[in-house]
Amino acid sequence: xxxxxxxxxxxxxxxxxxxxxxxxxxxxxxxxxxxxxxxxxxxxxxxxxxxxxxxxxxxxxxxxxxxxxxxxxxxxxxxxxxxxxxxxxxxxxxxxxxxxxxxxxxxxxxxxxxxxxxxxxxxxxxxxxxxxxxxxxxxxxxxxxxxxxxxxxxxxxxxxxxxxxxxxxxxxxxxxxxxxxxxxxxxxxxxxxxxxxxxxxxxxxxxxxxxxxxxxxxxxxxxxxxxxxxxxxxxxxxxxxxxxxxxxxxxxxxxxxxx
Length: 259
Prior knowledge:
alpha+beta; 5-stranded mixed β-sheet; 24% helix
């Protein structure tokens, strides 16, 4: 497990494609989350931490069918890769960069494994703020349809960075299921979707990760944030320069540029 975690960490920092040898690849999701946790520790030990929050992937049936998993998945987001309101990246620093339009939540209280099972009411009470966010993903796998899902989970499931918007403290007055999110690329609408496209409601994605982590004997911490999955189909720009903006009703805008 430690050898696979070190490989993934080294490849992440060197911007190299991911291709774990068969004898090091995790066999199932639980093993994959163990490797992932070890990789986070390796990254932190090499000045690329600490962990700032989590992302949730495969929150739609369509994406689950494409990737070959029957449920959502989660990955970590390292704090040095978290940006506020807008960010600029070098296009060449990615294997294949993607842009996702997401609702994010900031936790104001711990969600320990011992409190499971969790429901929406309990999770809502542990959330201090909500915000629009861009998840910057990177296809480090090439033909990801040929890569076993546990390998991608171990590698944080496409995660590369994120841009968080202004925190909305009175978020409970928003109808997040009905909120529309839009992704604009170079000034043109590239796609749109609704909060209900994420497991029926973005909050249910946080309920899912709290219970899934509890099944691994782990919890979530106050101050961490959760990216709940894209409301809009991921956009894969083919070349720079690129300027993208995502806008979510009630939560505002965030932007990213690739040069």
